Amino acid sequence: MNDAATLAEAAVGHNRPEPYDVERIRQDFPILQREVYGQPLVYLDSAASAQKPRQVIEAVESAYQEDYSNVHRGVHFLSQRATDRFEASREAAARFVNAASSDEIVFTRGGTESINLIAATYGRKFLREGDEIVISHLEHHSNIVPWQMLRDEKGLKLKVVPVDDDGNFLLDAYAELLGPKTRFVAITHMSNALGKVIPAKEVIRLAHQRDIPVLLDGCQAVSHQAIDVQELDVDFYVFSGHKLYGPTGVGVLYGKMDLLDKMPPYQGGGEMISSVTFEESTFKPVPHRFEAGTPAIVQVIGLGAALQYVNDLGIENIAAHEAGLMEYAHQRLAEIKGLRILGSTENKASIVSFTMEGAHAHDIGTIVDRAGVAVRAGHHCAQPLMDRFDIAASARASFGLYNTFGEVDALAESLNAVTEIFG
Amino acid sequence: MFDDLRELYQEVILDHGKNPRNFGAMDDANRAARGDNPMCGDRITVYLSVDDEGVIREATFSGQGCAISTASASMMTEIVKGKTVDDAKELFQSFHNMCTKDHCDMSAHEESDPDAVERLTVLSGVRQFPVRVKCATLAWHTLNAATTSADEAEPETVTTE
User: Fold this and answer.
1) What residues of A are in contact with residue B134 (Cβ under 8 Å)?
2) Which of A5, A225, B56, B157 is deepest in the core (most CB within 10 A)?
3) Cβ <8 Å between A362 and B5
Protein backbone atom coordinates (compact mmCIF):
# COMPACT_ATOMS: atom_id res chain seq x y z
CA MET A 1 0.00 0.00 0.00
CA ASN A 2 1.43 3.42 -0.90
CA ASP A 3 1.54 6.40 1.38
CA ALA A 4 -1.38 8.16 -0.25
CA ALA A 5 -3.59 5.13 0.14
CA THR A 6 -2.55 4.77 3.74
CA LEU A 7 -3.34 8.41 4.41
CA ALA A 8 -6.67 8.15 2.61
CA GLU A 9 -7.63 5.13 4.65
CA ALA A 10 -6.53 6.84 7.83
CA ALA A 11 -8.64 9.87 6.93
CA VAL A 12 -11.72 7.81 6.17
CA GLY A 13 -11.28 5.74 9.30
CA HIS A 14 -10.61 8.69 11.51
CA ASN A 15 -14.05 9.09 13.01
CA ARG A 16 -15.07 5.47 12.83
CA PRO A 17 -14.59 2.86 15.46
CA GLU A 18 -12.07 0.22 14.51
CA PRO A 19 -13.75 -2.48 12.47
CA TYR A 20 -14.72 -5.47 14.54
CA ASP A 21 -11.91 -7.91 13.87
CA VAL A 22 -13.23 -11.16 15.25
CA GLU A 23 -10.16 -13.16 14.20
CA ARG A 24 -7.91 -10.84 16.18
CA ILE A 25 -10.33 -10.98 19.14
CA ARG A 26 -10.25 -14.78 19.05
CA GLN A 27 -6.52 -14.64 19.63
CA ASP A 28 -7.31 -13.27 23.09
CA PHE A 29 -9.08 -16.52 24.05
CA PRO A 30 -6.56 -19.32 24.51
CA ILE A 31 -9.22 -22.03 24.75
CA LEU A 32 -10.55 -21.22 21.30
CA GLN A 33 -7.29 -22.52 19.85
CA ARG A 34 -7.93 -26.03 21.14
CA GLU A 35 -9.50 -28.94 19.33
CA VAL A 36 -12.12 -31.41 20.53
CA TYR A 37 -12.37 -34.88 18.99
CA GLY A 38 -9.78 -33.70 16.47
CA GLN A 39 -12.05 -30.87 15.30
CA PRO A 40 -11.65 -27.16 15.93
CA LEU A 41 -13.75 -26.16 18.92
CA VAL A 42 -16.95 -24.33 17.95
CA TYR A 43 -18.13 -22.94 21.24
CA LEU A 44 -21.81 -22.01 21.06
CA ASP A 45 -22.63 -22.24 24.75
CA SER A 46 -21.68 -18.81 26.06
CA ALA A 47 -25.15 -18.33 27.52
CA ALA A 48 -24.28 -21.10 29.99
CA SER A 49 -20.82 -19.73 30.64
CA ALA A 50 -18.53 -17.63 28.48
CA GLN A 51 -14.87 -18.33 27.78
CA LYS A 52 -12.22 -16.08 29.28
CA PRO A 53 -9.79 -13.78 27.46
CA ARG A 54 -6.14 -13.91 28.51
CA GLN A 55 -6.59 -10.41 29.98
CA VAL A 56 -8.86 -11.98 32.63
CA ILE A 57 -6.64 -15.02 33.09
CA GLU A 58 -3.60 -12.77 33.51
CA ALA A 59 -5.41 -10.51 35.99
CA VAL A 60 -6.29 -13.57 38.08
CA GLU A 61 -2.73 -14.84 37.84
CA SER A 62 -1.13 -11.52 38.76
CA ALA A 63 -3.58 -11.09 41.64
CA TYR A 64 -2.30 -14.36 43.08
CA GLN A 65 1.33 -13.89 42.16
CA GLU A 66 1.85 -10.22 42.99
CA ASP A 67 -0.96 -8.70 44.98
CA TYR A 68 -2.60 -11.42 47.03
CA SER A 69 -3.76 -10.87 50.58
CA ASN A 70 -7.07 -10.58 52.36
CA VAL A 71 -8.95 -7.35 51.78
CA HIS A 72 -10.12 -4.57 54.11
CA ARG A 73 -8.12 -5.97 57.03
CA GLY A 74 -4.36 -5.66 57.14
CA VAL A 75 -2.33 -2.54 57.43
CA HIS A 76 0.42 -4.12 55.39
CA PHE A 77 1.40 -3.39 51.83
CA LEU A 78 -0.20 -6.38 50.14
CA SER A 79 -3.48 -5.96 51.96
CA GLN A 80 -3.66 -2.43 50.61
CA ARG A 81 -2.80 -3.58 47.09
CA ALA A 82 -5.40 -6.37 47.12
CA THR A 83 -8.02 -4.01 48.58
CA ASP A 84 -7.29 -1.39 45.96
CA ARG A 85 -7.66 -3.84 43.10
CA PHE A 86 -10.79 -5.36 44.67
CA GLU A 87 -12.44 -1.99 45.11
CA ALA A 88 -11.37 -0.90 41.62
CA SER A 89 -13.57 -3.71 40.31
CA ARG A 90 -16.48 -2.26 42.27
CA GLU A 91 -15.89 1.08 40.58
CA ALA A 92 -15.67 -0.67 37.22
CA ALA A 93 -18.94 -2.53 37.84
CA ALA A 94 -20.65 0.71 38.87
CA ARG A 95 -19.49 2.41 35.67
CA PHE A 96 -20.47 -0.63 33.60
CA VAL A 97 -24.14 -0.35 34.59
CA ASN A 98 -23.94 3.42 35.18
CA ALA A 99 -24.79 3.22 38.88
CA ALA A 100 -24.91 6.56 40.69
CA SER A 101 -22.33 5.32 43.19
CA SER A 102 -20.05 2.31 43.60
CA ASP A 103 -21.62 1.90 47.05
CA GLU A 104 -24.65 0.57 45.21
CA ILE A 105 -22.64 -2.43 43.97
CA VAL A 106 -22.66 -5.54 46.16
CA PHE A 107 -20.45 -8.50 45.26
CA THR A 108 -22.05 -11.92 45.60
CA ARG A 109 -21.22 -15.46 44.52
CA GLY A 110 -23.27 -15.10 41.34
CA GLY A 111 -26.59 -14.10 39.85
CA THR A 112 -28.37 -16.76 41.87
CA GLU A 113 -27.03 -15.52 45.17
CA SER A 114 -27.86 -11.94 44.21
CA ILE A 115 -31.53 -12.87 43.83
CA ASN A 116 -31.51 -14.96 46.98
CA LEU A 117 -29.98 -12.05 48.85
CA ILE A 118 -32.80 -9.74 47.81
CA ALA A 119 -35.44 -12.34 48.68
CA ALA A 120 -33.84 -13.00 52.06
CA THR A 121 -33.36 -9.35 53.04
CA TYR A 122 -35.77 -7.06 51.24
CA GLY A 123 -38.31 -9.84 50.84
CA ARG A 124 -38.25 -11.01 54.44
CA LYS A 125 -38.41 -7.52 55.84
CA PHE A 126 -40.93 -5.83 53.59
CA LEU A 127 -43.26 -8.51 52.24
CA ARG A 128 -46.22 -9.72 54.29
CA GLU A 129 -48.81 -12.45 54.13
CA GLY A 130 -51.12 -12.02 51.16
CA ASP A 131 -48.68 -9.80 49.24
CA GLU A 132 -48.07 -10.65 45.61
CA ILE A 133 -44.84 -11.01 43.66
CA VAL A 134 -44.92 -10.82 39.87
CA ILE A 135 -42.52 -12.95 37.83
CA SER A 136 -42.78 -14.10 34.21
CA HIS A 137 -42.98 -17.29 32.23
CA LEU A 138 -39.49 -16.58 30.87
CA GLU A 139 -37.71 -16.96 34.19
CA HIS A 140 -34.69 -19.11 34.86
CA HIS A 141 -35.21 -21.35 37.89
CA SER A 142 -33.01 -18.98 39.88
CA ASN A 143 -35.65 -16.27 39.59
CA ILE A 144 -38.49 -18.66 40.48
CA VAL A 145 -37.33 -20.86 43.33
CA PRO A 146 -36.10 -18.14 45.76
CA TRP A 147 -39.54 -16.48 45.47
CA GLN A 148 -41.36 -19.79 45.96
CA MET A 149 -39.34 -20.35 49.12
CA LEU A 150 -40.22 -16.87 50.35
CA ARG A 151 -43.86 -17.41 49.33
CA ASP A 152 -44.05 -20.56 51.42
CA GLU A 153 -42.34 -18.92 54.35
CA LYS A 154 -44.44 -15.75 54.39
CA GLY A 155 -47.73 -16.79 52.78
CA LEU A 156 -47.24 -14.72 49.62
CA LYS A 157 -48.69 -15.24 46.16
CA LEU A 158 -46.70 -15.60 42.93
CA LYS A 159 -48.24 -14.19 39.77
CA VAL A 160 -46.78 -15.18 36.42
CA VAL A 161 -46.77 -12.94 33.34
CA PRO A 162 -47.56 -15.10 30.28
CA VAL A 163 -45.73 -15.10 26.96
CA ASP A 164 -47.27 -15.53 23.50
CA ASP A 165 -46.50 -18.37 21.09
CA ASP A 166 -43.54 -16.42 19.74
CA GLY A 167 -42.06 -16.13 23.21
CA ASN A 168 -42.88 -12.44 23.59
CA PHE A 169 -43.44 -11.02 27.05
CA LEU A 170 -47.05 -9.83 27.17
CA LEU A 171 -46.93 -6.29 28.47
CA ASP A 172 -50.72 -5.85 28.64
CA ALA A 173 -51.13 -9.02 30.67
CA TYR A 174 -48.34 -7.81 32.93
CA ALA A 175 -50.07 -4.48 33.47
CA GLU A 176 -53.24 -6.33 34.44
CA LEU A 177 -51.39 -8.49 36.95
CA LEU A 178 -50.16 -5.44 38.83
CA GLY A 179 -52.68 -4.86 41.57
CA PRO A 180 -53.14 -3.35 45.00
CA LYS A 181 -51.44 -6.35 46.61
CA THR A 182 -48.42 -6.45 44.28
CA ARG A 183 -45.37 -5.60 46.34
CA PHE A 184 -42.51 -6.78 44.15
CA VAL A 185 -41.68 -7.47 40.51
CA ALA A 186 -38.81 -9.84 39.62
CA ILE A 187 -38.35 -10.42 35.90
CA THR A 188 -35.59 -11.51 33.60
CA HIS A 189 -34.22 -8.85 31.28
CA MET A 190 -33.50 -11.50 28.67
CA SER A 191 -34.66 -15.11 28.50
CA ASN A 192 -31.83 -17.60 28.77
CA ALA A 193 -33.84 -20.24 26.96
CA LEU A 194 -35.22 -18.21 24.03
CA GLY A 195 -33.06 -15.08 23.88
CA LYS A 196 -36.14 -12.87 24.07
CA VAL A 197 -35.56 -9.43 25.57
CA ILE A 198 -38.41 -7.88 27.53
CA PRO A 199 -39.57 -4.23 27.30
CA ALA A 200 -37.73 -3.41 30.51
CA LYS A 201 -38.38 0.31 30.61
CA GLU A 202 -42.12 -0.11 30.27
CA VAL A 203 -42.14 -2.93 32.83
CA ILE A 204 -40.41 -0.67 35.33
CA ARG A 205 -42.50 2.41 34.54
CA LEU A 206 -45.77 0.51 35.03
CA ALA A 207 -44.61 -0.92 38.36
CA HIS A 208 -43.37 2.45 39.58
CA GLN A 209 -46.79 3.99 38.90
CA ARG A 210 -47.86 1.82 41.81
CA ASP A 211 -44.66 2.28 43.83
CA ILE A 212 -43.66 -1.34 43.29
CA PRO A 213 -39.92 -2.02 43.18
CA VAL A 214 -38.52 -3.99 40.26
CA LEU A 215 -35.67 -6.48 40.11
CA LEU A 216 -34.26 -7.31 36.69
CA ASP A 217 -32.29 -10.52 36.26
CA GLY A 218 -29.59 -9.36 33.88
CA CYS A 219 -27.50 -12.52 33.75
CA GLN A 220 -28.07 -12.91 30.01
CA ALA A 221 -28.72 -9.32 28.94
CA VAL A 222 -25.60 -7.79 30.41
CA SER A 223 -23.21 -9.30 27.86
CA HIS A 224 -25.30 -8.27 24.84
CA GLN A 225 -26.45 -4.71 25.44
CA ALA A 226 -25.44 -1.58 27.31
CA ILE A 227 -27.06 -1.38 30.72
CA ASP A 228 -27.89 1.96 32.30
CA VAL A 229 -29.61 1.37 35.62
CA GLN A 230 -30.33 5.07 36.09
CA GLU A 231 -31.93 5.43 32.70
CA LEU A 232 -33.95 2.26 33.29
CA ASP A 233 -34.73 3.51 36.79
CA VAL A 234 -34.53 -0.12 37.88
CA ASP A 235 -34.43 -0.83 41.62
CA PHE A 236 -32.30 -3.97 41.58
CA TYR A 237 -30.21 -5.34 38.73
CA VAL A 238 -28.28 -8.59 39.10
CA PHE A 239 -25.80 -10.48 36.97
CA SER A 240 -23.05 -13.05 37.18
CA GLY A 241 -19.42 -12.58 36.24
CA HIS A 242 -18.83 -15.81 34.36
CA LYS A 243 -21.32 -15.10 31.59
CA LEU A 244 -19.57 -11.77 31.04
CA TYR A 245 -16.19 -13.34 30.24
CA GLY A 246 -15.13 -13.13 33.89
CA PRO A 247 -14.38 -15.79 36.51
CA THR A 248 -16.95 -18.05 38.14
CA GLY A 249 -17.84 -17.51 41.78
CA VAL A 250 -18.59 -13.82 41.54
CA GLY A 251 -21.79 -11.93 40.84
CA VAL A 252 -23.04 -8.40 41.08
CA LEU A 253 -26.08 -6.99 42.79
CA TYR A 254 -26.90 -3.40 41.97
CA GLY A 255 -29.48 -1.79 44.21
CA LYS A 256 -30.68 1.77 44.63
CA MET A 257 -29.04 3.18 47.72
CA ASP A 258 -32.28 4.11 49.50
CA LEU A 259 -33.45 0.48 49.18
CA LEU A 260 -30.15 -1.17 50.08
CA ASP A 261 -29.83 1.16 53.02
CA LYS A 262 -33.02 -0.03 54.68
CA MET A 263 -32.35 -3.72 54.05
CA PRO A 264 -31.10 -5.89 56.92
CA PRO A 265 -27.85 -7.86 56.56
CA TYR A 266 -27.87 -11.08 54.54
CA GLN A 267 -25.31 -13.27 56.30
CA GLY A 268 -23.56 -12.48 59.54
CA GLY A 269 -19.83 -12.71 60.04
CA GLY A 270 -16.61 -10.83 59.64
CA GLU A 271 -16.20 -7.97 57.22
CA MET A 272 -19.83 -6.83 57.56
CA ILE A 273 -19.71 -5.54 61.14
CA SER A 274 -18.68 -2.26 62.72
CA SER A 275 -18.38 -3.70 66.20
CA VAL A 276 -19.26 -6.93 67.97
CA THR A 277 -19.87 -7.66 71.64
CA PHE A 278 -21.64 -10.68 73.03
CA GLU A 279 -24.64 -8.47 73.67
CA GLU A 280 -24.98 -7.01 70.20
CA SER A 281 -23.31 -6.18 66.94
CA THR A 282 -23.54 -3.16 64.74
CA PHE A 283 -23.27 -3.42 61.01
CA LYS A 284 -21.22 -1.66 58.41
CA PRO A 285 -22.91 0.57 55.89
CA VAL A 286 -23.84 -0.57 52.39
CA PRO A 287 -22.34 -2.38 50.47
CA HIS A 288 -20.10 -4.10 53.03
CA ARG A 289 -23.09 -4.96 55.20
CA PHE A 290 -24.01 -7.55 52.58
CA GLU A 291 -20.54 -9.01 52.12
CA ALA A 292 -19.91 -11.18 55.17
CA GLY A 293 -16.71 -13.19 55.28
CA THR A 294 -13.73 -13.13 52.97
CA PRO A 295 -15.08 -12.40 49.50
CA ALA A 296 -14.02 -13.97 46.20
CA ILE A 297 -11.10 -11.55 46.06
CA VAL A 298 -9.28 -12.81 43.01
CA GLN A 299 -12.48 -13.50 41.07
CA VAL A 300 -13.68 -9.96 41.72
CA ILE A 301 -10.36 -8.66 40.41
CA GLY A 302 -10.77 -10.91 37.37
CA LEU A 303 -14.27 -9.55 36.83
CA GLY A 304 -12.79 -6.05 36.75
CA ALA A 305 -10.53 -7.15 33.90
CA ALA A 306 -13.49 -8.71 32.07
CA LEU A 307 -15.49 -5.48 32.32
CA GLN A 308 -12.47 -3.59 31.02
CA TYR A 309 -12.16 -6.04 28.13
CA VAL A 310 -15.80 -5.68 27.12
CA ASN A 311 -15.59 -1.88 27.44
CA ASP A 312 -12.51 -1.77 25.24
CA LEU A 313 -14.30 -3.67 22.49
CA GLY A 314 -17.43 -1.63 23.06
CA ILE A 315 -20.67 -3.36 23.99
CA GLU A 316 -22.44 -1.74 21.01
CA ASN A 317 -19.84 -3.21 18.65
CA ILE A 318 -20.24 -6.61 20.27
CA ALA A 319 -24.03 -6.36 19.99
CA ALA A 320 -23.80 -5.42 16.31
CA HIS A 321 -21.49 -8.34 15.58
CA GLU A 322 -23.76 -10.76 17.43
CA ALA A 323 -26.85 -9.40 15.65
CA GLY A 324 -25.17 -10.31 12.37
CA LEU A 325 -24.46 -13.82 13.64
CA MET A 326 -28.06 -14.19 14.78
CA GLU A 327 -29.46 -13.14 11.44
CA TYR A 328 -27.17 -15.55 9.64
CA ALA A 329 -27.93 -18.38 12.07
CA HIS A 330 -31.67 -17.96 11.58
CA GLN A 331 -31.13 -18.04 7.84
CA ARG A 332 -28.92 -21.14 7.89
CA LEU A 333 -31.04 -23.08 10.39
CA ALA A 334 -34.25 -22.28 8.53
CA GLU A 335 -32.81 -24.26 5.61
CA ILE A 336 -32.75 -27.44 7.70
CA LYS A 337 -35.80 -29.59 7.23
CA GLY A 338 -37.83 -30.27 10.34
CA LEU A 339 -35.97 -27.69 12.40
CA ARG A 340 -38.16 -25.34 14.40
CA ILE A 341 -36.78 -22.23 16.04
CA LEU A 342 -38.42 -21.25 19.34
CA GLY A 343 -39.32 -17.60 19.64
CA SER A 344 -39.64 -15.16 16.77
CA THR A 345 -36.69 -13.03 15.71
CA GLU A 346 -37.78 -9.63 17.02
CA ASN A 347 -36.41 -8.49 20.39
CA LYS A 348 -34.06 -11.43 20.50
CA ALA A 349 -30.39 -11.44 21.32
CA SER A 350 -27.64 -13.96 20.74
CA ILE A 351 -29.58 -17.15 21.44
CA VAL A 352 -31.16 -19.58 18.98
CA SER A 353 -33.19 -22.27 20.66
CA PHE A 354 -34.57 -25.00 18.45
CA THR A 355 -36.05 -28.44 18.17
CA MET A 356 -35.78 -30.94 15.32
CA GLU A 357 -38.48 -33.28 14.19
CA GLY A 358 -37.79 -36.82 15.27
CA ALA A 359 -34.63 -35.93 17.20
CA HIS A 360 -34.55 -35.12 20.88
CA ALA A 361 -32.38 -32.17 21.94
CA HIS A 362 -30.14 -34.49 23.88
CA ASP A 363 -29.38 -36.55 20.79
CA ILE A 364 -28.76 -33.37 18.79
CA GLY A 365 -26.28 -32.22 21.42
CA THR A 366 -24.39 -35.51 21.38
CA ILE A 367 -24.18 -35.65 17.60
CA VAL A 368 -22.97 -32.08 17.00
CA ASP A 369 -20.52 -32.44 19.89
CA ARG A 370 -18.67 -35.09 17.88
CA ALA A 371 -18.13 -32.40 15.22
CA GLY A 372 -16.62 -30.12 17.86
CA VAL A 373 -19.77 -28.01 18.20
CA ALA A 374 -20.73 -27.24 21.80
CA VAL A 375 -24.42 -26.42 22.30
CA ARG A 376 -26.67 -26.73 25.29
CA ALA A 377 -29.36 -29.40 25.23
CA GLY A 378 -32.03 -29.63 27.84
CA HIS A 379 -34.55 -27.48 29.68
CA HIS A 380 -32.06 -24.66 30.31
CA CYS A 381 -33.18 -24.37 33.94
CA ALA A 382 -36.45 -23.00 32.60
CA GLN A 383 -38.83 -25.95 32.89
CA PRO A 384 -42.03 -23.88 33.14
CA LEU A 385 -41.12 -22.19 29.85
CA MET A 386 -40.45 -25.56 28.20
CA ASP A 387 -43.85 -26.73 29.47
CA ARG A 388 -45.38 -23.60 27.94
CA PHE A 389 -44.13 -24.70 24.54
CA ASP A 390 -45.05 -28.30 25.31
CA ILE A 391 -41.52 -29.60 24.86
CA ALA A 392 -39.27 -31.37 27.35
CA ALA A 393 -36.11 -29.87 25.99
CA SER A 394 -34.55 -27.83 23.23
CA ALA A 395 -31.12 -27.42 21.73
CA ARG A 396 -29.66 -23.97 22.22
CA ALA A 397 -26.85 -22.29 20.33
CA SER A 398 -25.71 -19.07 21.97
CA PHE A 399 -23.26 -16.59 20.54
CA GLY A 400 -20.59 -14.55 22.23
CA LEU A 401 -18.28 -11.78 21.13
CA TYR A 402 -15.79 -14.30 19.69
CA ASN A 403 -18.06 -16.37 17.44
CA THR A 404 -17.80 -16.27 13.67
CA PHE A 405 -19.98 -16.74 10.63
CA GLY A 406 -17.88 -19.81 9.83
CA GLU A 407 -18.95 -21.28 13.15
CA VAL A 408 -22.59 -20.78 12.23
CA ASP A 409 -21.83 -22.79 9.10
CA ALA A 410 -20.18 -25.47 11.23
CA LEU A 411 -23.32 -25.68 13.36
CA ALA A 412 -25.56 -25.98 10.32
CA GLU A 413 -23.36 -28.65 8.80
CA SER A 414 -23.17 -30.64 12.02
CA LEU A 415 -26.96 -30.58 12.19
CA ASN A 416 -27.05 -32.32 8.85
CA ALA A 417 -25.59 -35.35 10.61
CA VAL A 418 -28.63 -35.28 12.90
CA THR A 419 -30.90 -35.36 9.89
CA GLU A 420 -28.79 -38.14 8.44
CA ILE A 421 -29.28 -40.29 11.53
CA PHE A 422 -32.84 -39.38 12.46
CA GLY A 423 -34.26 -38.03 9.20
CA MET B 1 -19.93 -39.52 10.48
CA PHE B 2 -18.06 -40.80 13.47
CA ASP B 3 -17.86 -44.47 14.27
CA ASP B 4 -18.84 -44.13 17.90
CA LEU B 5 -21.96 -42.20 16.86
CA ARG B 6 -22.88 -45.04 14.53
CA GLU B 7 -22.28 -47.47 17.34
CA LEU B 8 -24.52 -45.49 19.67
CA TYR B 9 -27.32 -44.86 17.19
CA GLN B 10 -27.67 -48.35 15.80
CA GLU B 11 -30.73 -49.24 13.76
CA VAL B 12 -32.41 -51.11 16.61
CA ILE B 13 -32.10 -48.08 18.89
CA LEU B 14 -33.40 -45.68 16.26
CA ASP B 15 -36.30 -48.04 15.62
CA HIS B 16 -37.31 -48.35 19.28
CA GLY B 17 -36.73 -44.62 19.74
CA LYS B 18 -39.09 -43.75 16.93
CA ASN B 19 -41.64 -46.51 17.48
CA PRO B 20 -41.53 -47.38 21.14
CA ARG B 21 -43.22 -50.66 22.07
CA ASN B 22 -45.56 -50.96 25.04
CA PHE B 23 -45.98 -47.20 25.10
CA GLY B 24 -48.78 -45.72 27.16
CA ALA B 25 -50.24 -45.83 30.66
CA MET B 26 -51.58 -49.14 31.94
CA ASP B 27 -55.01 -48.94 33.54
CA ASP B 28 -54.74 -52.07 35.66
CA ALA B 29 -51.12 -51.72 36.72
CA ASN B 30 -50.39 -52.69 40.31
CA ARG B 31 -46.92 -51.16 40.37
CA ALA B 32 -45.75 -47.81 38.97
CA ALA B 33 -43.02 -45.26 39.43
CA ARG B 34 -41.95 -42.02 37.82
CA GLY B 35 -38.37 -41.36 36.77
CA ASP B 36 -36.85 -37.93 36.15
CA ASN B 37 -33.54 -37.05 34.61
CA PRO B 38 -33.22 -33.49 35.93
CA MET B 39 -30.24 -32.77 33.71
CA CYS B 40 -32.17 -32.96 30.46
CA GLY B 41 -35.78 -32.95 31.53
CA ASP B 42 -36.56 -36.55 30.54
CA ARG B 43 -39.55 -37.86 32.46
CA ILE B 44 -40.99 -41.33 32.18
CA THR B 45 -43.44 -43.45 34.10
CA VAL B 46 -43.12 -47.23 34.21
CA TYR B 47 -46.23 -49.36 34.81
CA LEU B 48 -46.13 -53.00 35.82
CA SER B 49 -48.64 -55.72 36.34
CA VAL B 50 -47.04 -58.19 38.72
CA ASP B 51 -48.81 -61.41 39.67
CA ASP B 52 -48.82 -63.20 43.03
CA GLU B 53 -45.76 -65.24 42.07
CA GLY B 54 -43.79 -62.06 41.50
CA VAL B 55 -43.80 -62.46 37.72
CA ILE B 56 -44.09 -59.33 35.58
CA ARG B 57 -47.10 -60.06 33.37
CA GLU B 58 -47.24 -56.69 31.61
CA ALA B 59 -44.91 -53.72 31.43
CA THR B 60 -45.54 -50.37 29.76
CA PHE B 61 -44.13 -46.87 29.96
CA SER B 62 -45.17 -43.33 29.11
CA GLY B 63 -43.40 -40.00 29.01
CA GLN B 64 -40.91 -38.05 26.98
CA GLY B 65 -37.25 -38.58 26.39
CA CYS B 66 -34.37 -38.77 23.96
CA ALA B 67 -33.79 -41.61 21.52
CA ILE B 68 -31.58 -43.45 23.99
CA SER B 69 -33.92 -43.26 26.97
CA THR B 70 -36.99 -44.06 24.87
CA ALA B 71 -35.30 -47.03 23.17
CA SER B 72 -34.02 -48.29 26.49
CA ALA B 73 -37.47 -48.09 28.05
CA SER B 74 -39.09 -49.72 25.05
CA MET B 75 -36.66 -52.63 24.96
CA MET B 76 -36.84 -52.99 28.72
CA THR B 77 -40.61 -53.45 28.70
CA GLU B 78 -40.17 -56.25 26.17
CA ILE B 79 -37.29 -57.85 28.02
CA VAL B 80 -38.83 -57.97 31.49
CA LYS B 81 -42.20 -59.30 30.44
CA GLY B 82 -42.51 -62.82 31.84
CA LYS B 83 -39.52 -62.42 34.13
CA THR B 84 -39.73 -62.40 37.90
CA VAL B 85 -39.11 -59.11 39.65
CA ASP B 86 -35.92 -60.56 41.10
CA ASP B 87 -34.63 -61.61 37.68
CA ALA B 88 -35.41 -58.17 36.28
CA LYS B 89 -33.48 -56.52 39.09
CA GLU B 90 -30.52 -58.76 38.49
CA LEU B 91 -30.57 -57.94 34.80
CA PHE B 92 -30.66 -54.23 35.66
CA GLN B 93 -27.58 -54.61 37.81
CA SER B 94 -25.68 -56.34 35.04
CA PHE B 95 -26.81 -53.77 32.49
CA HIS B 96 -25.79 -50.93 34.77
CA ASN B 97 -22.34 -52.44 35.09
CA MET B 98 -22.16 -52.88 31.35
CA CYS B 99 -22.87 -49.17 30.81
CA THR B 100 -20.44 -47.90 33.38
CA LYS B 101 -17.57 -50.37 33.49
CA ASP B 102 -15.04 -51.32 30.86
CA HIS B 103 -15.41 -55.01 31.42
CA CYS B 104 -18.64 -56.63 32.34
CA ASP B 105 -19.54 -60.26 32.31
CA MET B 106 -23.05 -60.91 31.04
CA SER B 107 -22.45 -64.63 30.72
CA ALA B 108 -24.74 -65.33 33.68
CA HIS B 109 -27.65 -64.16 31.52
CA GLU B 110 -26.29 -65.34 28.19
CA GLU B 111 -27.75 -68.78 28.43
CA SER B 112 -31.11 -67.93 29.93
CA ASP B 113 -31.81 -64.87 27.81
CA PRO B 114 -29.47 -64.38 24.86
CA ASP B 115 -31.89 -61.96 23.21
CA ALA B 116 -31.90 -59.61 26.20
CA VAL B 117 -28.13 -59.71 26.39
CA GLU B 118 -27.82 -58.83 22.73
CA ARG B 119 -30.16 -55.85 22.98
CA LEU B 120 -28.59 -54.54 26.14
CA THR B 121 -25.16 -54.86 24.59
CA VAL B 122 -26.28 -52.58 21.78
CA LEU B 123 -27.42 -49.99 24.31
CA SER B 124 -24.17 -50.20 26.20
CA GLY B 125 -22.63 -48.13 23.36
CA VAL B 126 -23.41 -45.22 25.70
CA ARG B 127 -20.27 -46.18 27.58
CA GLN B 128 -18.40 -43.99 25.06
CA PHE B 129 -20.69 -41.09 26.04
CA PRO B 130 -20.56 -40.85 29.82
CA VAL B 131 -23.15 -38.06 30.08
CA ARG B 132 -25.63 -40.28 28.25
CA VAL B 133 -25.39 -43.28 30.57
CA LYS B 134 -28.24 -41.89 32.64
CA CYS B 135 -30.43 -41.78 29.54
CA ALA B 136 -29.90 -45.51 29.03
CA THR B 137 -30.45 -46.44 32.66
CA LEU B 138 -33.38 -44.12 33.54
CA ALA B 139 -36.04 -46.66 32.60
CA TRP B 140 -34.33 -49.39 34.60
CA HIS B 141 -33.95 -47.18 37.66
CA THR B 142 -37.64 -46.40 37.35
CA LEU B 143 -38.54 -50.07 36.98
CA ASN B 144 -36.50 -50.79 40.07
CA ALA B 145 -38.50 -48.18 41.99
CA ALA B 146 -41.79 -49.49 40.60
CA THR B 147 -41.12 -53.00 41.85
CA THR B 148 -40.86 -51.67 45.39
CA SER B 149 -43.84 -49.28 45.14
CA ALA B 150 -46.77 -50.27 47.25
CA ASP B 151 -49.51 -48.07 45.88
CA GLU B 152 -49.67 -47.33 42.20
CA ALA B 153 -52.05 -44.43 42.78
CA GLU B 154 -49.13 -42.49 44.22
CA PRO B 155 -46.17 -43.45 42.08
CA GLU B 156 -42.82 -42.96 43.66
CA THR B 157 -40.45 -40.65 41.81
CA VAL B 158 -36.80 -41.51 41.33
CA THR B 159 -34.21 -39.32 39.72
CA THR B 160 -30.94 -40.15 38.05
CA GLU B 161 -29.11 -37.66 40.26
Assistant:
1) none
2) B56
3) no
Q: What does the alpha-carbon distance between residue A294 and residue A277 come to, in Å, rounded to a whole number?
A: 20
Domain span at residue A222?
A: 56-312
| For chain B, domain boundaries | 3-152
Let me know whether A332 and A396 are in one domain. Answer: yes
Give Cα A36 to chain centroid, integer Å: 26
Predicted-complex ipTM score: 0.86
Q: What's A169's DSSP letter?
A: B
Across the interface, whether the CB atoms of B66 and A363 are under 8 A apart is answered yes
Contacts of A370 in chain B (CB under 8 A): 2, 4-5
B19 vs A: CB within 8 A: no
The number of domains in chain A is 2
Chain A contact present for B14, CB below 8 A: yes
How far apart CA A311 and CA B154 sit, in angstroms, is 55
Helix (H, G, I), strand (E, B) or coil at A21: coil
**Tens digits of per-residue pLDDT, A49-64?**
999 999 999 999 999 9
In a domain, A132, yes or no: yes
**Distance (Å) from the alpha carbon of A362 to chain B's nearest alpha carbon:** 6
- pTM as predicted: 0.91
- Cis status of the peptide bond prior to A287, with omega within 30 of 0: yes
Instruction: Give catalytic residue positions of A.
Output: 381
From CA B107, how far away is CA B118, in angstroms rounded?
A: 11
DSSP string, A28-67: T-GGGG-EETTEE-EE-BTTT-----HHHHHHHHHHHHTS
Q: Which CATH class is domain B3-152?
A: alpha beta
Beta strands in B27-153 (DSSP E): 31-37, 42-50, 56-64
Cβ of A383 within 8 Å of Cβ of B41? The answer is yes
Distance CA A384, CA A393 (A): 11
**Cβ of B12 under 8 Å from any chain A Cβ?**
no
Instruction: Tell me the per-residue pLDDT of B36-58, one tens digit each, with 9 for 90 and over.
Output: 987 777 889 999 999 999 999 99
Mutation pick from B7, B39, B40, B69 vs chain A, by most beta carbons of A within 10 Å, is B40
Residues A26 and A82 in one domain: no
Q: Give the separation between CA A271 and CA A86, rounded to whole angstroms.
A: 14
